[in-house]
Structure formats: C-alpha cells, structure tokens
Amino acid sequence: MPFSHAWLPYIYLYGAGGLLFGSGLLITIKSGSLDLKRPGHKNWFLILIFGFIWFMVMHAVWNLAAMEVLSLKVSGLIWLAFMVVSLGFGYFRLGKRARE
Amino acid sequence: MEQTGVQTFHSIGSPTDWIVMAVYFAFVMLFGSYFGRYTRSTSDFFFGGRRFSWWLITMSIVATGVGSHSFVKYSAKGFEHGLSSTMTYINDWFFVPFFLFGWLPIVVYSKVRSIPEYFEKRFSPSSRFIATLLLLTYMIGYIGIGFLTLGKAMVPLLPESFVLLGAHIPVNLMGVITVIAVITGIYITFGGQTAVIFTDLLQGFILLFAGLMLFAFGIGYLGGFQAFWDLLPVSWRMPLADFNRPPDFNFAGIFWQDGIAGSIGFLFMNQGLLMRFMACKSVNEGRKAAAINILFILPISAIVVGNAGWVGKAISVVSPDIISPAASLDQIFVVVANIVTSPGIFGFVMAALTAALMSTVDTLINATSAIFVNDVYRPIKRFLSKKVTSKKATERRELGVARIASVGITVLGVLAVIPFNRFPTVYEAHGYFHSTLTPPLVVAIFFGVFWKKFTPAAVITTFLGGVALMVLGAQYPGVLIAPFDHGITLNPDHPYTYIRALYNILVCAGVGMLTVWTGGLQHKFVKWVRRLPNTNMIMAMLTSILSIIYTVVIVSFFIDFGTMNSILVLIVISIIVLPLVVNYYVVGYDVETHTKGLVASSIQDARRFFKGGEPNDAEGEKVLVHYKVIENEEDEIRFSKDDMQTMAANPGDLVYLSDKRKWLGGLKSIHSVYGEPHTENGIAYINDEQRKVGIFAKDKILEAEKEL
Question: How far apart are CA B178 and CA B286, in angstroms?
Fold first, then answer.
C-alpha cells in the first residue's frame, strides 16, 4: 500500500482539519461565545475535544484493519469499546444540566 | 441491456414490490398530513414553532442528510473505489465548534428567518439582495440534484416503455423526474415544516433500519463478514481515498470540496438544515442534535448509504455474470438491493430510499420557499405598499404565497436537473455543484460571523469579485487552479471537479481580506471624492465601469474572447473599484451597531435581544404542573411563587412549557414569558390560545422550565 493511500490522507485530514478545529476552539473561546467558566459550556468543550479524538481513533483503527496490521476481530473490539465509552461519556456530559 | 459498454437495467422488481411501495408511500403521506394540522402560521410552516427535542431533530436530520442522494451516489463510488466512498460522512467535526458556538446561537437569538436576512442585519440591504440570489441558486441546484437522484433510482424499476390508451410512451429520466416532482410538490404544499419533521423522523428510523438490513442481507449473501472483507482488495478497504488519484475520486480534492466547502455549506448555509435546528426548543437542544448526529449517526449512516456499492463490488469479484464490473454506477444500489433481498423486502428498501429522497427534496423546497417569502416577497411588498394589514391577514396571505412559491421552486428544481445530468455520476455532479456554488457564501457567512471588521464593502466584493475570479478559474483551470491541485491530474472533460473548491475558497477569502485591509484607503478616497464638485458623475462613471467589467467576465465565459491576462486585469480593477463604490453608496454602516448580537464576540448581546432583557442564568429545576385556562390577553404563563423559585425564574424570563411525555419530543409545547406569580402550587395559568397552540390535553401533566 503506497504512503499516498496508507497514511498521507490521514495525516492531511487531521493536520489540516486539526488546524481548523483548533482555530475554531480558539476563536469561540476568545470571542467569549464558548465560555469555559460556565459549567454547561465546559461540558461542551470536553465533548468537542472528545469528538475529535473519537474520529481520529476510528480512522486509525480502520486503516490498521484494512492493511491487516490488526485483525478484524481486534479492530472490531477496539471500535466497539470506544463506541461504548463514547456513548457513556456523551450521555454523562450531555445529560448534565447545560443551559444556554 | 448493453448501451455504449455500460450495463443498464430496467423492470427490476416484482408486482409485490410495487404494492409494498404504494402502501409505504400512502402511509408516509397520511403520517405527514396528520402532522400538517399543527401548522397554524408561517412560523409553524417554516420552523415548526421552535418546540422540538434534540432526539426528534437528530432523527429527522438523518432523512434529510442520508436521504439526500446519498444511497445512489455513495453506492456508485463504493462500487468503484470501495469503503472510502463514504469518507465524507466522517469529516464534519472540524467545523462543529464554529457552528455550535458561533452560527447556531446567532441564528436563533438574532431571530433571523433566513440567511439573507442575516446579511441585511449584519451588512446592508444590497448584501442581502446578492446573498438571496446566490442562495436561491444554491438551493434550487440542490433540489435539482435531489430530483436527478430520485429519477436515477426510479428508472431501473420501470420498463423501457409502456402503452397508454394505445400510445407507446418511452420511459426517460426527465419524464420520471417530472412525475416525482408533481407528487413531491403536492405533499410539501399542504404539509409544512411540522409535517416534514415528523415524516423525516419516521423515515430516519426506517432508513437506518433498511440500510443496515440491506448490509446484513448482502453479508449473508457473500457468506459472512470475513468472506466479504477478504474479497475486497486492500485499497478498497481503506477508509480514505488515495491522496491525489484518480481525478474523479481523490482524497485531497474531496477534502476541500466536501470536508471544507461542503461541511460549512451544509452546516452554515443549508437553510433546510438550519430550519431544523431553529425548530429545536432551545439553542442547547440544537447543539445536542448536531453533536449526536455528527458523532454517532453519520458514521452509522456511512455504512447505511455505501454498503450496497461495497457488496456489489464483492459480488462482481466472485460472480461477474451477476453484476458486471461495467454496470451502470448510479444503478448499483437498486441492482444490489434486488439481488440480495427477496420480493417485498426489495420493495420496502426502495420505498424507504425514494421516500427519503422525497423528504430531502421537500425539506429543500420548504426552505427555499421560506427564503422566497422572507427575502423576495416581503421586501417587494414593503416597497410597493405602505398599507398596514392585520397580523392574521398577513400570516394568511404569506402562507398562501409560501405554498405557491413551493410549486414554482419545484418546477425550477426539475429544470436544474438538465445541467447536472451531463456528469457521469450523481457524486461528481454534486461535487462540482458544491465546489462551485458554496465558496462565496461560505466565506461571506464565515467572515461575517467571526470577523467583526468584515464590512459591507468586503462582503459585496467577496461576492462579485470572488465569483468573477471563480469564473476565470473555470475558464483557465490549467493555469489558475493547477497551482493548488495537490498533484491531481487535470481531466479535460471535467477539470478539477473537487479541488477547484480550494481555489474558489482562496480567491473569495483573499478578495474579502484585501478589501478589509485596505478599508482605510477606501474611506480616504470616498472622503476626497465627496469634496469634489462632480462627485455624482465620478461615482456613476465608476459604477458603469464595474457593470461593463462584470458583463465582459460573464460573456467571456460563454463566448470565448479576450485573453486570460486581459480579463484578469479587468477583474483586479473591479476588486479595487467596487469597495469604493459600495463605501460611497452604503451610508450609515456602523461597526458597533451592525455587529451587535450578530458576530461570535457579541453572543451575550444576541441573548439580550432574544429575551428583550438581561438573561437570567441562575440554575433552576424543572417543575411539573397541571394547567388552568384563564382570561388573559397577554402572552404570558403564571406559576406559583414556590414553583418560580424552584425554576429560579423571575417575571419576564422566558419559559418553555411542554407535555411531560418525552416521546412526544416537544410536539405539544409552547414558549412564553413568566407572568406575575400566584399562590396555587403545581398549577400553570395559561390562556385559551396558548392551550390551542400547545395542544395540551386536559388531564396530562406538563413540564415547565426556564429558558433564559
């Protein structure tokens, strides 16, 4: 598998995408629209960070499974575990009172 | 049947499938019509009364997002390139902070009903006018893509021709699309947003179920997941496409076309989607709906929409006699569904697909109609007539206009199919459409929301100067777009279908930034001109020069004349002159006034504007109450002093009162303000109109919470 298909798109996606995501966080925090002093907004900040990691891990596991570095079963288990943790985290965070 | 080397299909399916489809459609139409009765005003027609819970909106977005052309186009690319076909479903998170804490609260709190209205409030009426034109073009194009997909999904099910009253009538794409458009138009015209939301909610669940069921059937057909996985070559299993090959499907191009232009376009300027978020009961519920949708529903949807193509590819590897590798790409979904399912189930899958596509189209028609009423009809009406009519009469008339507009927009959507049908697949047509139509508005909205210094002159120059440079890029892609091509080969038939988005974004953003940064010089020039005796003549001359330049740019696109450099020089002149003209004619723009509550840095002002007073952020609890109808002309709800204390609410704060049953998703609810407290704990005093709007049942418990 050439690097241009194996990892270059992944690096580009989370490099360029990460820059945009980071600048989004920075701009919204600096402008005060995402106010980390408010408990509801702090929850949202954590969810945003977690979402970015969630997609990064999901793509990485998928890449490794496709290239047979990880077996299907192991990849499936990692993915499932991460999904359960994410759902739990999301429920815990979004379930908290977070009034605008 | 073989046609020019491509295997196409007709008359797929059995009579049982048609019966299932007819029953399904009748059921969905009845379901939608039932909820149409909740439409009492234009606010209900377009925004569903701003009352729904996050889960209801999340699921209704599924049918809008997934239903929209996705099954057909992602299956086509899945068949061609494997699992990476759906990479665009998993790249939307990057702009979520901008959306959740920038655009969404601004749109809700500033009470804008459409994106062009935002442009008028934030910039000027002329900005609104241009934004309306661009947005209507975008929305109608989107409807065209929807109709094209619907037609392509339906054609394989139909015979090549049929006989009606002795006449031999051939079945062609445009004919099928016209019939579909009539059915869609009828539905949306009499439904409204509440009907659309509930129909989409039902279809969201059914779509996910049908898509996953199809995958399970496909995997079973191939002998299990491991067998399916082993049949796919490594390159087809990858989640992301090759960086820059081939020209019709590469990562770099699609990242800029979909991950950037598409994501911002979808979240920031898709009026249909925004109206869904506006239908949420609060900003926070809108955030939840967006986050859950992107985090969990979209990855599942990626499997749902692409799996027919992946399964088809695997079948074509083991049994090329069943599915030829040369099968028509846009028909793959239908073909695979027919192979792996049995009669009846195939009908159900096709019904789910076509009904969801109709949902997407009707959402877009509804949204475009909202733009028409808000940004075309109302301004013209205001301009032509000073006569003041009652609110009820106006509402009734606007509802009628909205319905007529829906019909007109449907017709234009059908006509928009013609240019898109020239692309090999729906995927490429949609990619080109996004790369070309979204950048000017995307840049303008983005800078408008996050850059306080972005002025009317900058937004108009972004629109006109940016579009002029985009037109030039489309004419000379090998020179202007090539420097940004990331090594993607230029396909002369469809040059840089996706990566042109990067060029288009850069030129629009560049023009906007340049105009802002030279703002001081522009104002000096305008001041100087105003002191001259022949000011009007000078400005009229500059305006004429601009008109000539833009006419030349447009004409040169259709009739090849002039060199690239000569046209480029003209465009550069226009980019210098246009801000001067705008600054001269747009008077009274004040940065502080025009950005108050309309940029990310002044969300607090937006909240104050929304409430009409200082927001009350004290943490309170929800309370359960019964209602009592009292005579009260005011739009207010009165609670006991103790209940108000529990909610940490004061008179004048905003309150949301809903039926306690969560599964209703807020359908039976109202927004109002707290009135003066009374002494009856557990009782909310409402008036008869509020009871009717909330559709509250007499013996049911209601839940009250402070909104702001």
Answer: 35
CA dist., res. B656 & res. B625, Å (int): 12
Alpha-carbon distance of B197 to B60, in angstroms, equals 6
Q: Is B648 on the interface with A (CB under 8 A)?
A: no
Under DSSP, is residue B241 helix (H, G, I), strand (E, B) or coil? coil
State the ipTM, two decimals: 0.92
Shortest alpha-carbon distance between residue B662 and chain A (Å): 14
**Three-class HEC string of B413-482:** HHHHHHHHCCCCCHHHHHHHHHHHHCHHHHHHHHHHHHCCCCCHHHHHHHHHHHHHHHHHHHHCHHHHCH
* Nearest-neighbour CA in chain B from A41: distance (Å): 9
Tell me if B637 sits within 8 A of B685, measured CB to CB: yes
Quote the distance between the C-alpha of residue A46 and its chain's center.
10
Most confident listed range (B172-176, B326-330, B414-418) = B414-418
pLDDT tens-digit map of B352-403: 888 777 777 877 887 888 888 888 888 888 777 766 667 777 778 888 888 8
Q: Do A4 and B244 touch (CB under 8 A)?
A: yes
Cβ atoms of residues B139 and B371 within 8 Å = yes
User: What is the identity of the amino acid at B259?
Assistant: G
The answer to whether B704 and B694 are in contact (CB under 8 A) is no
Q: Taking Cα atoms as reference points, which of B145, B126, B135, B442 lies closest to residue B268?
A: B442
Average pLDDT, chain B: 87
Q: With 50 as the cut, is the pLDDT of residue B627 above it?
A: yes
Whether this prediction's pTM lies above 0.90 is answered by no
d(CA B514, CA B497): 27
- Tell me chain A's radius of gyration from C-alpha atoms: 17
